[in-house]
Amino acid sequence: MTDSRPDIRDRLAIIAGGGLLPRYVAEAARARGEVPYILALRNESGDDWSDFDHEIISIGNYAGIGGAFRRHGIGRAVLSGWVRRRPEWRDIHAPLRMLLAVPSVVRTLLKGGDDAVLRMVIRLIEAEGVRVVGAHEIVPDLLGCEGPLGQVVPDRDAEADIAAATAAAQALGRLDVGQGAVAVGGRVVALEGAEGTDGMLERVAALRAAGRISQRRKGVLVKLCKPGQDMRADLPAIGVETLSRARAAGLAGIAVEAGRSLVLERDAIVAEADAHGLFVTGIVPDRREKTP
């Protein structure tokens, strides 16, 4: 679509990776009267953006992203959706003034952890004079709340698994590696790595099928923000697919950090969880750590 609003000076840009979140953000922005401009990341965003003003751009093309900001009067940007592939050094195109403003950009993008990379991306965007806002600022209803979302609540065994997986996810986050952990029978059996939550749950399902995890005990997936994580990027998120994979892995349910995680397809998740006897609940890790 062509840009029919050249007079906008604080227009919202959505830098769209994979998954459902970019579409949620775009639709919510449109519903409140905005005309968002979509920068769909090549080989990451699988959505059809023909109903929005948009362009497709490579993940490392910061010069191109900055040019799009200036052409379309962008004043704010949202980073949304997952990115599976880090750019190679040869894929990074940034103007000299940007590299001077953020001198460690290449080293961080290629060698830093996910949170370090996202912080660097935010600094690169801000070097263009564009303010980065969180997806939850555009769609606040997506934030998870404390307590169970549906009719099913964690039992005593599940509470013990939540405590174990919470401690593991916090330790993992301090290393800037991942946001999720799975515990079964009070024992941590999987930590989220580069494969993401879906890959971790597939691994748990395979371990259970192979008899490496108890068939009798169910277990829990916990997803948390990393300690000190910038909430403007990569908040933990779950959707119906996450719940389906947790069920396939034999888990009893999912716990996410209240107020610092995103629950997509909320009504569908609740219906699916209730139908299959699984729980989805919001937790506050600091409170749990103080519980004897």
From TrEMBL:
Its EC number is 3.6.1.54. Keywords: Hydrolase. One of its GO terms (molecular function) is hydrolase activity. Coiled coil: none annotated. The keyword Hydrolase applies. The keyword Ribonucleoprotein does not apply. This is UDP-2,3-diacylglucosamine diphosphatase LpxI. It comes from Shinella sumterensis. The lineage of its organism: Bacteria, Pseudomonadati, Pseudomonadota, Alphaproteobacteria, Hyphomicrobiales.
